[in-house]
Design a protein that fits this description.
The structure is a homodimer of 322-residue chains.
Chain A: H1 3-15, H2 18-24, H3 29-43, E1 48-51, E2 54-57, H4 59-86, E3 90-97, H5 106-116, E4 119-126, H6 129-137, E5 143-146, E6 155-170, E7 180-181, E8 190-194, H7 200-212, E9 218-223, H8 226-234, E10 240-243, E11 254-259, E12 265-273, H9 279-297
Helix pairs in contact in A: 1-2, 1-4, 2-3
Chain A binds a DNA duplex (25 and 25 nucleotides) through helix 3.
Chain lengths: 322, 322
DNA sequence: TAAAAATACTCCATAGGTATTTTAT
DNA sequence: ATAAAATACCTATGGAGTATTTTTA
């Protein structure tokens, strides 16, 4: 039994007239007659009662008709679904992210993507940059939002944002109200760092910044999560050097001050395997490319790309909690 | 998309090896390659990732596989079901019967049929003989168990039983204990008849029997259901002439006495349209033919075909309630 | 280099067309 | 008499075979 035959049967069952059914099938009547006969032989039973004046369904034909429709519908839906998967319009995506990406408009970008493609579900899992790279390499993640240290070969990267580092101080800090400061000004303070295991690129960047400023930081606390650092600072537990995106954290009790003359940048990447052919990933990559393009022009929250601070080009202005 | 192609896809999805899949499909490898390529073109997406050393499913292929299986299974089941309907092994049968058939082993015959063919459901509906013939003619019944008067042309009949008439008397009747009687002996009694509308053949037979005995019955009551007649008789409401099958009714307070010298018979028929091609009906007809054959040899309840009474050949012996 | 998929071509089975006959009303 | 299905016969598309090439692990 072939789909073609099912279609013949259905056409005749609906028309109950060989010529009309054949016309509907864009064929001539004789091959339809023989095709129907062939189906009946295969099923071992008459499906139609017919003479030259009348065609009608037998009970076997009556029973077969809705089943045949069901088979066709199921096949059609299977094909449509497969086409969608192949076009990246349907499926699942496991994507990693470092917590700080929540401050960079990534959730909004993903929400918009899910909204635009109703049949793709993105599953986010928070992991360190290194963990993400490992997971992507081993196929446990499709892609990741991370701060790349050393990106393994075979990975493709998209730069989402380049951010300057700023000092993060308690609101009560003497320099909290300043427009900018030199890193040396806080060289003697307790420094809060992200653990190197959690984020080597950040760790190394801060160490390098301090070294350039002529000191080695007094590391008071090491944390693995950005919120922990901010809360510690707000409680007077120390100071930190953070990417300016942290300004969007919205935590009370901390202030951000630009670093005078610093051009060192924290780069936020989107990373995936270059050899991936996963359609849904390719679609997502396309979406992120276009998002990053417009996002680099207009950073999140509608803050203009060029803020007031000459030392913070292409990054949002420093907010001051009142 | 054709079923053949689904089978190719499934074979390759399961083997993940063109040569083995082709072998399983009893074909050579090159046509399988081109067929798969053709399917992929139709779906507009790769279903397999492949090189000379490895074949694997893409996400689209992974999604398609269970759907393809479902389509095949559904088609297979549709064909099997249709075959069953065509072979009369599945379906519904609306069959009429006159109430008296309950005394002739018909329910048992139907039960056995339903037991033997698990997928046929027989729907019984009690109707008079005339109503049945009308319903069969107009396709509202597939067949009927009835006492045929005039059977319309185009009907096929199977004689299920030929029964002699016996007198049915109250147990208190003076002649209730007799082995047999002449109809004249009860000519003066109140006679209970089935309404002619309900059963013309019975009505006419009884009238003819009385006429042959030289009298016209004093019709006291007319009833439309055999149980009503028997109950009336038990209550002393009159006497009746009934087919000997009524002996099996099992009602207390009535007695049956053979009619001396009478050979008039009540015939129980199974009737259906000669031109019917309904497989489930043909199967049922075959069943009833074989049932009637063995039933005529051995009547219900194990009563031998030839009883003690010489005047009641091929019919059960007259029972006497103690 | 060896095994496997892809390509190139060939062939024939059969889907489908045309012409005609049969049949039932 | 007529319309419709069945039959007979023909054509050609494309499914499947064989031989060969290409590819990559």
């Amino acid at each position: 039994m072939e789909i073609r035959q099912l279609k013949y049967f259905i056409a005749l069952a609906e028309e109950l007239h060989f010529r009309r059914a054949a016309a509907r099938l864009s064929m001539s009547q004789p091959p339809l007659s023989s095709a129907i006969k062939q189906i009946e032989e295969e099923l071992g039973t008459q499906l139609f009662e017919r003479n030259t004046k009348m065609v009608s369904l037998t009970s076997a034909g009556t029973a077969f008709y809705p089943e045949a429709l069901k088979v066709l519908a199921q096949l059609e839906q299977a094909c449509a679904m497969t086409r969608d998967v192949g076009a990246g319009k349907r499926g699942q995506l496991r994507i990693g992210f470092v917590g700080g990406m929540l401050l960079r408009g990534i959730p909004e970008a993903i929400s918009r993507y899910e909204y635009e493609t109703t049949d793709v579900s993105v599953s986010l899992r928070e992991m360190s940059s290194a963990e993400q790279l490992y997971a992507i390499t081993h196929g446990r993640l499709a892609a990741g939002f991370l701060h790349a240290g050393v990106v393994p070969a075979g990975m493709e990267t998209l730069v989402l944002r380049k951010e300057l580092f700023v000092a993060c101080l308690p609101a009560t800090h003497a320099r909290a109200g300043q427009r900018e400061l030199n890193l040396q000004h806080i060289a003697h303070e307790d420094m809060i760092l992200f653990a190197r295991d959690a984020s080597p690129s950040y760790y190394d960047s801060v160490i390098a910044l301090c070294a350039a400023a002529g000191f080695s930081p007094r590391v008071r606390h090491e944390v693995t999560h950005w919120l922990t650092a901010l809360v510690l600072i707000a409680r007077g537990g120390g100071v930190a050097v953070v990417p300016d995106a942290f300004i969007h954290a919205g935590l009370q009790g901390v202030r951000y001050v630009a670093l005078k003359g610093s051009t060192s940048q924290s780069v936020a990447y989107f990373v995936w395997r270059r050899d991936s052919t996963e359609p849904v990933l390719l679609e997502f990559v396309a979406h992120m490319r276009s998002w990053s393009k417009s996002n680099l022009a207009t950073p999140p929250d509608g803050i203009p790309a060029s803020g007031k601070l000459a030392t913070l080009p292409k990054t949002p202005r420093v907010h001051r909690t009142p």
